[in-house]
Amino acid sequence: MAGQLWLDPARARRAGADLTRVGEAVTGRRAEDGAAITAASARRPWGRDDIGAAFEQQYRGYEEMVLRVWAGVGRRLAELGSDVVRSVEANLETDAASAGRFERVTEPRPPR
Questions:
Q1: How far apart are CA 64 and CA 19, in angstroms?
Q2: Who's near 60: CB < 8 A, 6+ residues apart?
Q3: How many CB atoms lie within 10 A of CB 101?
Q4: pLDDT at 33 > cutoff 70
Q5: Phi then psi for 56, rounded to 5 degrees?
Q6: Which residue has the higher pLDDT, 5 or 47?
Q7: What pLDDT is attached to residue 107?
């Protein structure tokens, strides 16, 4: 790949921190709203007759899946934010190490 990669470390760190906060917010919202959904559905507002039982049988699996995925999205966003910050640090360290090696290679050598 030709060209340059430009990285604004401060901006990338902020973006990573923002992702972490968003993940935590999604997780918090899932805990609150998910608990409300679980509590409401436990009362089986669709009824306990045959139709309600049929609905319950179909609904419960979807409810569990949605709540599990919702929690997973929050966790993954928070993890992604941490990964972004670690990546910025690793890129800066690699760049500094490479620059140091490059400077040593390009230093004038004394004649033999």
A1: 25
A2: 41
A3: 10
A4: yes
A5: -55, -45
A6: 47
A7: 67
**Residue 40 φ then ψ, to 5°:** -65, -40
Map residue 52 onto helix, strand or coil.
helix
Do 82 and 16 touch, CB atoms closer than 8 A? Answer: yes
pLDDT tens per residue across span 85-112:
999 999 999 988 888 887 776 667 777 7
b/e per residue, 74-91, with b = 16+ CB within 10 A?
beebbeebeebbeebeee
Q: Is the pLDDT of residue 57 over 80?
A: yes
Q: What is the DSSP letter of 85?
A: H
Beta-carbon contacts of 41 under 8 Å, excluding residues fewer than 6 positions away, are 59, 60, 63
